[in-house]
Amino acid sequence: MAKLTNKVAVITGGSGAIGSTTAKLFLSEGAKVVLVDINKEALDKVASDLNSPNLSYIVADVTKAADVQKYVQHTVDTFGKIDVFFNNAGIEGVVKPIEEFPEEVFDKVMAVNVKGAWLGLKYVLPQMNDGGSIINASSVAGLSGTANVSAYVTSKHAVIGLTRTIALEAAPRKIRVNSVHPSPVDNRMMRSLEDGFAPGAAESAKQAFEATIPLKRYATNEDIANGVLFLASDDSKFITGMKLVIDGGMTMA
């Protein structure tokens, strides 16, 4: 039997590589899915590519309470309920030492990665079915420090605090709240960071990152989606407040 039969899932950051890959996997496992993103053109393309009657999408800014309430209501109006929430929207910011880091970029990263996640939890939880599952997107950057990406690292540490707090608040309703922590993933975000760490020599930055991973490669979008599916499904029904690290051994080394 499919792992998400009769489940309704909301995925923020839905037009990105991890969000869209997870949506594809969720659909194949029987879920109905609502994708949320600020980029309408990208959402249109993902929806066209996935081409499923069980998929809906809505343009929303996760940093604005009214937009978050709008995507929650859209999901309930379209599919009648919410069982799974992949709180995934996030941005990387820039690569700069703190004394050169633009304050407006710090504010934007924190707004999307922390306030956006917090607002999602605030407004999804009241509409979520008891026994549901929430997966918050953090990173290996939430488990250690990395120079020159202070905003991103700070934001991903904050997601752990949110996860632990809301896991306790949601436990009486048997709603599980966990975080997922990818290593570098082979997608657009890492292309941006590679170029930031080594302008004009992004491939050397990629090789340096891969050298820190015992399995000697980046994660794929599918690797992360499979981990999110585990946390979304009943396979993880006695796991809450925990960190699922999908990093090829990077944080162990």
Give a description of the structure.
- The protein has 253 residues and is an alpha/beta fold.
- The chain has eight helices and seven strands, in the order βαβαβαβαβαβαααβ.
- It has helices at 17-28, 40-50, 65-79, 103-124, 150-170, 188-197, 202-211, 221-232; strands at 8-12, 32-37, 55-59, 82-87, 128-137, 176-182, 243-246.
- A seven-stranded parallel sheet has the order 3-2-1-4-5-6-7, with helices on both faces.
- The model has no long low-confidence stretch (mean pLDDT 96).
Question: Secondary-structure blueprint of this entry?
Answer:
Elements: E1 8-12, H1 17-28, E2 32-37, H2 40-50, E3 55-59, H3 65-79, E4 82-87, H4 103-124, E5 128-137, H5 150-170, E6 176-182, H6 188-197, H7 202-211, H8 221-232, E7 243-246
Parallel strand pairs: 1-2, 1-4, 2-3, 4-5, 5-6, 6-7
Helix pairs in contact: 1-8, 3-4, 4-5, 6-7
Largest sheet: 7 strands, parallel
Shape: globular
Measured as a percent range, the helix fraction is 40-55%
Average per-residue pLDDT, rounded, comes to 96
Order of helices and strands: EHEHEHEHEHEHHHE
First-to-last CA distance: 37 Å
Got a strand count? 7
User: Ranges with pLDDT <50 over ≥5 residues?
Assistant: none
Q: Helix count, per DSSP?
A: 8
Strand content: 15-25%
Structural class assignment: alpha/beta
What would you report as the Rg, rounded to the nearest angstrom?
A: 17 Å
Which labels suit this protein?
alpha/beta, seven-stranded parallel sheet, 7 strands, 253 residues
Q: What is this structure, in a nutshell?
A:
By secondary structure, this protein is α/β, with parallel strands linked by helices. The protein has helices spanning 17-28, 40-50, 65-79, 103-124, 150-170, 188-197, 202-211, 221-232, and strands spanning 8-12, 32-37, 55-59, 82-87, 128-137, 176-182, 243-246.
